[in-house]
Amino acid sequence: MPMSPMQKNAILFSVLLASSSAFSNESPVQHAWRLSGFIAPTKTKQWMSISEGKIVCIDDEVKPGVIPEAKNCVSGFDVTSLKDVTAISTEDSIFPGMMDLHNHIEFNSLPLWTDAQGQFKNRFEWRESESYQKGPHKFFMRLMKLDPKDPDYATFSDFNCLSLQWAEIKALAGGVTAIQGMGRIQNSTCTKDFGIRNLEIASTMDLKDTTITGSIEVLNPETIQKGFNVFIRPQINKEMTNYREALGAFDEHFEISNWLTDFKTKEHTIENGILLAVGPMAKKYLNDQVKLTEETAVPMIKNILASETQTLKITDVESASARVLAWLFEPNIEKVSYMDISPTNPDIEKLALAFLSPDKYDRTAMKSDAVLYIPRDARDYMASFELGTLTSLRKKLLLPKTQSFLTHLGEGRRTDEYNSQEYNYANTLGLLTPNFVSIHGVGFSEDNFHDMGTRGNGLVVSPFSNLLLYGESVRIKAAVQNKVILALGSDWSVSGTKNLLDEAKVLKKYSSKEGVTLTNQQLAEMLTINPAKLLKLDTDQGFGRIALGRQADFILLSTKPRDAYTSLIDSKSENIELVTVKGEPLYGNADLLSKVALGLGDTVAPESLNDFLGSDPSCAPLKASNKAFRLFSWADSKTRFSVREIKSKLDQRFKEASEKYKATMNAEGLSLDPIYSCQDPGYRSALSRLLK
Question: Phi and psi of 55, rounded to 5°?
């Protein structure tokens, strides 16, 4: 069949993959398969091997069923050990696997939150809204994070793990081969080696001495408004000084560091406890005391508080006295009594911070508000934010092993007073290190983007989620003009897209309305090489491109485009013919997947999806494309995962949870979020609305 002019301009791409002993005790390599297709912008035919999950050798004269000579291969992979080669020739487009840099996958079995219609100002408002707090999503999230002591744990103990795996199944079906947002560290037991790569699990990303990490957020408006804006910013503005100098003046004024030093070094008698709780003014009342007990301390503490009412701003002496007594005699953290600890106790630092700012550390154990002579907001800022959050965060950012750090910043409307300043706060606080990657950035100003471009910091955008929650997204024109490195993230299924292909389409439409035209090449790079650059995975680890020595994570698309980049951005779920992770084909067209699997010596037939796609006519193109999964454990290539079984268990959990909470929720229960948009009319409606 003659090639079209478009195809003549494309590049023939050939890859060789082989089954190996990478995940088993078998050796040597016995089987291999070859795939040909079109790719841009490479100019050379390539071969890939999964002996190390990377492209390791090249040959310009590839022939079906013929093993290439060993001399053309990188050292460490001996192709002469191959028994036979299965050749698969296509005229499809091949791209690197897509990387989703913003998600919360433990919740991605939940469907779209249809109450969100762009009405919220920021991420804090919708979290506290009645619609969300009393809606079904909140109840279901609780079940995914149950403590083993909870009476519901027996029923829902597997809910979280199943949800994580379902999230990876959905992502894989959308062409994603690596994803961010695993969540809590304990989730790694469910996600590691399951399907796609998890950015936070170093071994799945082939990281040896470095890590990719992050947090949902590093700042919050309450801390900024009650602490930074009250105590720190006025000093900066007044003295034209920097943050560290202003913080030092603040600390010296309130003697917070001195308090911490006293707590950690002085003997913890009742007398010292009273001094720590009430302050130096108590000394004149303690001079005549021979021996203090709880009984003798009560009237003395009341006298101290009554005489210092104006200084302490306390009007209820009885209440204040009770708080001090509770602080002295009742509270504990991890069953360590204040009266029993000593400076040599390894938990002394944690305990000191907890007493200085109790509600931030252990809400259940602490029954009092200690250190009455230091304003509460000042204590909270120093203890929980500066000495707790920021100190830990700065250490993490500056650690040589922290390859990149991702966090939400500027999520909310541009006009929101706090949201519009969050980038500036992060800058003032010294957080914008070279490995700092912001997520969302809707509140970032043009000046912020200029600063980002100068620094080389990157941004992950999630326009679908932003538009659904806040009615607007990032200043994309300013970001592009300042050459900020951009990547895309689907966000969670509660307010985000099912896959990155949909996210790219939303960004393209939104950008056009914002007055900037993003080319398909720019969008394609946001899904592949840009994420790799932001995570510093584009060099030694070899992500984001298909080239010699790089990772064998790629997707095969059935589209016949004007150019290869268009083939990716215009693709739909039915166009994904094959998704390969670490060189292993895990999803795609059932016939193609079967042929490849047999080439790898796999006798287990791929699991077809057609019989549970339903009768919605929107799924007709997907049914015609005959999709299937071939999932197994990387740790044990003989252990197979069944999508059907995972779905069945999750359907049951959703049914049980909906029944359990039907009398409590303000809405009907939920059902499992489908893999594809054709199965989800509510999602299709929201996507269509945002694409108009």
Answer: -70, 120
Using an 8 Å Cβ cutoff, are 127 and 470 in contact?
no
CA dihedral 542, 546, 547, 552 (to 10 degrees): 60
Cα 692 to Cα 467: distance, rounded to the nearest angstrom: 12
| 582: exposed, middle or buried (Cβ count in 10 Å: 0-12, 13-18, 19+) | buried
CA distances for 413 relative to 29, 130, 477, 558, 664, angstroms: 55, 20, 16, 39, 32
User: What six digits make up the tokens of 90?
Assistant: 């296509």
Contact 543, 467 (CB under 8 A): no
- Phi, psi dihedrals of residue 298, rounded to the nearest 5°: -60, -55
In the chain, DSSP finds a helix count (H) and a strand count (E) of 31, 22
pLDDT tens across 5-19, in order?
333 233 333 444 444
- Give the Cα separation of 83 and 586 in Å (integer): 22
Phi-psi sector, 614: left (phi>0), alpha (psi -120 to 50), beta: left
Which of the 8 DSSP states describes residue 462?
Answer: -
**What is the chain's alpha carbon radius of gyration, rounded to the nearest angstrom?**
29
**Structure tokens that stand for 480 in this block:** 């592009």
Q: Measured between alpha carbons, how far is residue 526 from residues 74, 484, 507 in Å?
A: 30, 11, 11
Question: Contact, 72 vs 59, CB < 8 A?
Answer: yes
pLDDT at 212: 93
Dmax (CA) for the chain in angstroms is 105
CA distance 215 to 200: 11
By CB atoms closer than 10 A (0-12, 13-18, 19+), residue 430 is middle
- The torsion angle over the Cα atoms of residues 170, 628, 546 and 502, rounded to 10 degrees, is -40
Rounded to an integer, what distance in angstroms lies between the CA atom of residue 589 and that of residue 596?
10
Closest CA to 158 of 547, 511, 509, 657: 657
3-state SS assignment for residue 632: strand
Q: Which of 477, 580, 484, 497 has its CA nearest to residue 534?
A: 484
**Model confidence over 22-61: pLDDT tens digits?**
333 343 444 556 677 776 554 333 333 333 344 444 344 4
Provide the whole-model pTM: 0.86
The answer to whether 55 touches 48, Cβ cutoff 8 Å, is yes
Query: Rounded to 5, what percent of the chain is helix, strand, coil?
Result: 45, 15, 40
Q: What is the dihedral of CA 233, 235, 239, 242, to 10 degrees?
A: -60
Task: Give DSSP secondary structure letters for 527-546.
Answer: HTHHHHHHTT-SSSS--SS-
β-bridge pairing 197-198 and 176-179: parallel
Say how far apart CA 204 and CA 195 lie, in whole Å: 10
The reported pLDDT for the residue numbered 490 is 96
C-alpha closest to that of 633 among 195, 5, 149? 195
- CB count, 10 Å around CB of 659? 10
535, 210 contact by CB (below 8 A): no
235 to 231, 239, 289, 432: CA distances (angstroms): 7, 6, 41, 22
Strands in 328-382 per DSSP E: 332-333, 336-337
Instruction: Report whether 588 contacts 628 (CB < 8 A).
Output: yes
Task: Report d(CA 686, CA 691) in Å as an integer.
Answer: 9
Residue 341, pLDDT score = 54
Name residues of the chain where pLDDT drops below 70.
Answer: 1-34, 39-87, 288-290, 308-315, 330-347, 358-370, 547-549, 560-562
